[in-house]
Design goal:
Distance between the termini of chain B: 69 Å
Largest sheet of chain A: 5 strands, mixed
CATH topology of the largest domain in chain A: Glutaredoxin
CATH superfamily of chain B: Glutaredoxin
Strand content of chain A: 15-25%
Mean pLDDT of chain B: 87
Strand content of chain B: 15-25%
Low-confidence stretches of chain B: 1-24
CATH class of chain B: Alpha Beta
Oligomer: heterodimer
Helix content of chain A: 25-40%
Radius of gyration of chain B: 19 Å
Number of helices of chain A: 11
Largest interface: A-B, 10 and 10 residues
Order of helices and strands of chain B: HEEHEHEHEEHH
């Protein structure tokens, strides 16, 4: 490299550095790590920024590594360390990224190293500290369980099983207390928000959500919860079910409103669900046991345009071919909630990969009678109850 | 004469075609209250092979595997019931999801005293038993117990819910699921 080139590169580098400092300073994080000097290999940080997955790797040389990146707001991340020596086992560690300089320091493994960073790291430390007695009890319990297993002592195993369940309850209580006492923490909010995956009861979720700070409620995850809550409220028992039209197996359009006069089990599903048998079993059960009721099953199947599954074949295999089942198809993949590629139907019924399979019961007048038919336990009893029978 | 032979062959072919067709007719749904006539094709390892359920008999079919600990724990219990009700009820220990039949045979030989009833080998996902029994009944976990009376599947339950008093209800023709569940 000649001098001219060097100057050119340096100038570009300085420009890059200053511009990133000026524009993105508040969003940049860096991780400087030093673990045991004998450690060589590769370390990868993975996190989600603004609903996009990001991964970045760095070499670990004599235990030293450095990573950096940009984040819109503090977020959960994971570190994976793969040693160069293939005989050695890799390591995985959860952490939180704040937009600050983070240090990871220790003289042996990644898991025993100390992480120092912003407020989220402090919160994780507080939670870990609160969890310490549980971890200690758990380690001890594991040993006793291994012993009982070795002795083939069934009574002891049962007793220890009960002890384990109690320990898990204690751990859940500690987590709940942590969430309650940290209303402005990304760590606490991140733990709580798992409750809102899948189908939830808005009357239970809303007051809990409102106990978080404005900053949390307006965070990326917070905005998703707000949208989900609004959606759930539109689909309460008593509201009119949104109308839609899709083609049936023969290509004939079928609309929900055309089924007025009959009670409708509106069933959303896709073949990708595993294990699938209990789902097709539940629908066949409804179809057979309620065949004399004024009821039809509108079975909405979701699949991608170039799927390896043949819809008609799936229907035959699942035995969803009885006379009181109307099969229609929406050519749309089932994706996570935040993804924008959704059909009108998916938007109208607030559906995502986390909520399918799902079934509503809709009255003869098109009103929602049951927001979530219990498909796994006793769907027939659940439907009868909603119909007042 | 030639023509006659031809006709007989055609008839035989048709019959063959028809029987294979009916044999392949898949059971799509198996739940309490459903009629059951045929037992799926399995390999009988012990006892009397069963092809068709008889109207006046009671059958208890328990699904098990050599890798399934709770199933193995339930084996003595089934033998115990067999010793008391063997003349009135047909007991079948139906092995499922065990890839290697020789291991199943070895297991049975080792545990002869625990398994005093009919035993059949079902096989994996491509087997007749899987397609015509496990899949239509949405059986995704074992042990699972099926009770059949009067050519009807009357109950899908677990070994722990099946006891002498429940079997007596069946013998007395007084069985219903609610009554059986009260006898837990």
């Amino acid at each position: 490299m000649n001098l001219k080139q060097l100057i050119k590169y340096s100038a570009a580098f300085i420009l890059l550095l200053t511009s990133s400092l000026g524009l993105y300073a508040q969003n940049t994080f860096s991780i400087n790590g030093q673990i045991g000097k004998y450690q060589q290999g590769m370390i990868t940080v993975r996190y989600t920024d603004n609903n996009n997955g990001v991964a970045d790797s760095s070499k670990v040389a004599d235990g030293k590594f450095s990573l950096k990146g940009k984040i819109t707001e503090p977020t959960h991340a994971s570190l994976t360390f793969i040693p160069a020596d293939k005989q050695k086992i890799g390591e995985y560690r959860d952490m939180f990224l704040d937009p600050v300089a983070i240090t990871i320091a220790g003289d042996s493994t990644l898991n025993t190293a100390k992480i120092k960073g912003g407020p989220s790291s402090t919160d994780i430390d507080a939670l870990s500290k609160a969890n310490e007695p549980i971890v200690k009890k758990g380690t001890d319990l594991d040993k006793r369980m291994a012993k009982a297993k070795e002795d083939d002592d069934q009574e002891k195993m049962k007793e220890l099983g009960a002890e384990r369940r109690q320990l898990l309850d204690e751990q859940a209580a500690i987590r709940a207390a942590f969430i309650k006492s940290h209303p402005d923490s990304y760590v606490a909010f991140g733990l709580w928000v798992r409750k809102t995956r899948g189908f939830f009861l808005p009357e239970e979720i809303e007051p809990e959500f409102n106990s978080f700070s404005v900053r949390m409620r307006n965070s990326i995850q917070g905005k998703i919860v707000t949208a989900k809550l609004e959606g759930a409220k539109r689909l309460f028992v008593g509201s009119t079910a949104p109308d839609f039209t899709l083609n049936d197996v023969s290509g004939k359009p079928v609309s929900l409103s055309s089924l007025k006069g009959k009670n409708v089990v509106l069933f959303f599903w896709g073949r990708a669900w595993f294990p699938f048998e209990p789902i097709s079993f539940a629908i066949t059960k409804i179809s057979r046991q309620l065949k004399d009721e004024n009821l039809v099953i509108l079975s909405v199947y979701f699949d991608t345009p170039n799927s390896s599954y043949e819809w008609k074949q799936v229907l035959e295999e699942s035995a969803l071919t009885a006379g009181n089942i109307i099969n229609v198809k929406d050519t749309m993949p089932i994706l996570p909630y935040y993804r924008k590629e959704k059909s009108e139907l998916m938007k109208a019924f607030e559906m995502s990969g986390e909520t399918i399979p799902h079934a509503y019961l809709i009255s003869t007048e098109g009103k929602i009678l049951n927001r979530s038919i219990d498909l796994f336990k006793d769907p027939v009893a659940d439907i009868k109850k909603s119909l007042g029978k | 004469m030639k023509k006659n032979i031809c006709l007989t062959i055609t008839a035989a072919l048709w019959l063959l075609l028809f029987t294979t067709y009916t044999a392949n007719a898949q059971v799509v749904y198996l739940d309490a209250g459903e009629k059951v006539d045929n037992y799926p094709k399995v390999e009988w390892l012990r006892g009397v092979p069963l092809e068709r359920f008889e109207k006046d008999k009671i059958y208890v079919i328990e699904l098990w595997a050599t890798w399934c600990r709770p199933c193995i724990e339930a084996l003595p219990h089934l033998s115990d019931l067999e010793s008391k009700f063997g003349d009135k009820v047909v007991f079948i220990g139906q092995n499922v999801m065990d890839p290697d039949i020789s291991k199943v045979k070895a297991f049975i030989a080792r545990n002869e005293k625990l398994m005093k009833y009919n035993i059949a080998y079902g096989g994996m996902e491509d087997s007749d038993f899987y397609k015509n029994w496990m899949k239509p009944s949405a059986t995704i976990g074992i042990p699972r117990t099926f009770v059949i009376q009067n050519n009807t599947l009357v109950w899908m339950t677990s070994p722990s819910e099946l006891n002498e008093r429940v079997l007596q209800l069946l013998v007395d023709k007084k069985f219903n699921i609610e009554a059986a569940q009260k006898l837990k």
